[in-house]
Amino acid sequence: MPSDTLAQHAAVPETPDKADTPRIVPQRRFGQWTAAAVVLVLLALAVNSVLRNDAFQWDVVADYFTTTAVLRGLWLTLWLTAVVMVLGFALGTLLAAFRLSANPVLRAVSWGYVWLFRSIPILVQLLLWFNIGALYPRILGVKTVDLLGPVTVAVIGLTLHEAAYAAEVVRGGILSVDRGQIEAAQALGLSRWRRWRRIVLPQAMRSIVPPAGNMLIGTLKGTSIVSVIAVQDLLYSVQLVYHRTYQVIPLLMVATVWYTVVTSLLGVGQYYVEKHYARGTERTR
Amino acid sequence: MSVMVDIRSVHKSFGPLHVLKGIDLTVRTGEVTVVLGPSGSGKSTLLRTVNHLEKVDRGVISVDGALVGYRRSGDRLRELPEREVLRQRTRIGFVFQNFHLFPHLTVLENITEAPVSALKRPRREAAEAARRLLARVGLADKADAYPRQLSGGQQQRVAIARALALEPRLLLFDEPTSALDPELVGEVLDVIRDLARQGTTMIVVTHEIGFAREVADTVVFMDDGRIVEQGPPADVLDRPRHERTRAFVSKVL
Known about the structure:
The structure holds 2 protein chains of 2 kinds. By secondary structure, chain A is mainly α. Chain A has helices at residues 2-11, 30-52, 58-65, 68-99, 104-119, 122-130, 144-147, 150-175, 179-187, 192-222, 234-245, 248-277; strands at 138-139, 142-143. Chain A has 12 helices and 2 strands; from the N terminus they run H-H-H-H-H-H-E-E-H-H-H-H-H-H. Chain B is of the alpha/beta class. Helix content of chain B is 37%, strand content 28%. Chain B is built from 9 helices and 12 strands. Chains A and B meet through helix 9 and helix 10 of A and helix 2 and helix 3 of B. Chain B: Residues 5-249 form the ABC transporter domain. Chain B: Keywords: Amino-acid transport, ATP-binding, Cell membrane, Membrane, Nucleotide-binding, Transport. Chain B: It comes from Streptomyces viridiviolaceus.
């Protein structure tokens, strides 16, 4: 019996000549070609209508693109975004730590915060903070309206809103780190702070960065909501111009293009940050 | 010979599950103790209580003359602050079934992390020591690799080097070869065998009976949260006195 098997095995390896093997023809994908053609035509029509529509007034867009008023608005939008992101994530990380703590009071407080601030629309919240003087006319002896100007109100409102979402993002990142990593660090005698900073956080960052990048871009555009309380951000700055000149569309295009430019730059930045935290995830060197 | 580990009437429950039901065990300095037993017998939990990764509900454990995780005050045991527990752990090496190497750090960084941060060793000195340890486990050329680029056997050898970097008085192994492909088990056991030969005090939880027979000074057989039988491998493995030990040994061999 074993010799039979051997004989059969020996008979198999007859590699057929290349010339004899039939040529392989991939399936023709007519549907894909048609779909691509239709989409390209529609895209061309759309681009054409934008470029050929004089109502966009691209020359006016160019005129206002780098005026002092617009750049000032852009600057406010940028630093407001930065401040809200930093403060929001700082508070969010604290809330995530509360939520994951062994202390039931801290857990409940964190849960309650996230529930409350995710429930209130940001627009409603900003208007409430803007009118907080009606509830507390004076804070520490100072008139509330003097203490909380529109910009301060914008920072407070956006930060509190941001923190609720950041808390969930950070919590998700921490939970994604294998429990064994913490045990190994404990077994090696690493201090609580060192475990957190050197072992947990760098690994959590891999799952935190993509949604955080999403939030950063969302916040950048979301800050435009502060125009309702007359904070002179990018949107409000162009609004001020078009209320005067009635060139509504070209000035909105100024804001649109700036938002797009900054968003694109942030996307590039995110790529490098992600690459940094992906260390050790590939099998090959 | 002096006593390295002294475990006295240790009890541990997880909720309603009584996992350790009064364990007494002594490990002498320089000896290798191998703990055998079916899954769920409590052997891993016992090992984890030795460096306070699990807190005991009752009983005392001392390592190298000091109570682990507690200090005695009158007739009570008060739990030590975390800082103290961490300091105690630097003298007890622990090797996990699933290695638990830090994936975002290189092999060298994995090994130097604890000496640098917990023992405040200068980084350069720690790196030199780490390279010597890597050579000892046969991985001198892998210092700059990331854990995921290594085979399971290599990762476990790095994990052993990482535990050794603290120059512990005692090494604990929690099923060090159970997560490995069969052909990689040998290289890890070789390293542990080598450590045994050099007189390292160890407690090894494992399913490798052949290894126990060869390396152990004492074999402990656990079942259902109790130590059923203990003694030299020749006694416990070849002439088991208890029915349960006999059944287990015949099944595994």
